[in-house]
Amino acid sequence: MPEGHSVHRITRQFQRNFIGHRVTVSSPQGRFATGATQLSGHSVTDARAVGKQMFLEFDHGLWLRIHLGLYGAWDFSGEVLMDATMASANGRMGQTNQHGTKVAAGAEAATFDADGENSIFSIGAPRRTRVRMSEQEKEIEPVDIFPPEPVGQVRVRLLTDTVCADLRGPTACEVLDPAQVDAVIARLGPDPELENTPAAEERFVSVVRKKPTPIGRLLMDQSVVSGIGNVYRAEILFRAGLNPHTPAKSLSDETVRALWQDWAHLLHIGVATGQMMTMDKLEGAGYRRAMRSRAHRHWVYKREGLPCRVCGSHIVLEDMAARKLYWCPRCQA
């Protein structure tokens, strides 16, 4: 399932390519035909992400709400102009790495992740291409004919004169009015990429400190904090040295504040690079290797049975809240 950083990156694509443009909205699959009729012919005026959900506003006041869920993905095709703030692994934009060290602009060679979690490198001038954005990002193929024929079960197609966005497999896809959008957002926990403020931090801390729920389960609750999924849950808990089964209300204020601050830190890096990079103090070849392969950029995620990078104990895999949980029984004792 796409985690918070992916949805923010997708939203930035809409901000760059669709805001201010009149769009033709259709439903090639047919399941969103009524909603498409409500939106088609109007201009996009806003695009925002809150955790794992995104919202597109149109000039007549209606919104399109999307939750990608487990299988959803957007394909952007045409003269796609990538958001210049979406720094890629080659350091062209001078992004900050995990160690807090700024990678020199142009100092790195372009890297491509063998697992398919590729950052997009077409920053700058638009070119004819097709880019798939979900949990992973990858450039699929050049586009010879625009708009391209729909591929697969396309729930929604948004089309401008130069760019096409096709949505497949979402958990939620609906037209809402402003009051309904406000109600949905009110049910979501704070998102530090939107509001990394003392008030947002305090909201998170106050909720967590009241709950007897295991912290490993609570971090996945989108009403408590927005955007954290399976990868970030495992990595944040390891970085904090916390046993996932610890009752949330037993944690100190200081510990809970540190969780919020680390989530804000990791989310910002994920939005900037397109990778869920959670390893610290990586420089040069080590950083490039981690950007190429997830096996080198996580502490515990998908490392079950392998020795902990810190203590050597075997990483444990178990189920929590019907999701796979990875943790070190010694470092997180």
Automatic annotation (TrEMBL):
GO molecular function, one term: oxidized pyrimidine nucleobase lesion DNA N-glycosylase activity
Coiled coil: none
Annotated FPG-type domain residues: 299-333
Named cofactor requirement(s): Zn(2+)
SMART domains, A to Z: Fapy_DNA_glyco, H2TH
One of the GO biological process terms: response to oxidative stress
Enzyme class: lyase
Ranges of residues in domain Formamidopyrimidine-DNA glycosylase catalytic: 2-81
Record-stated family: Belongs to the FPG family.
Name the UniProt record assigns to this protein: DNA-(apurinic or apyrimidinic site) lyase
Taxon lineage: Bacteria, Bacillati, Actinomycetota, Actinomycetes, Micrococcales
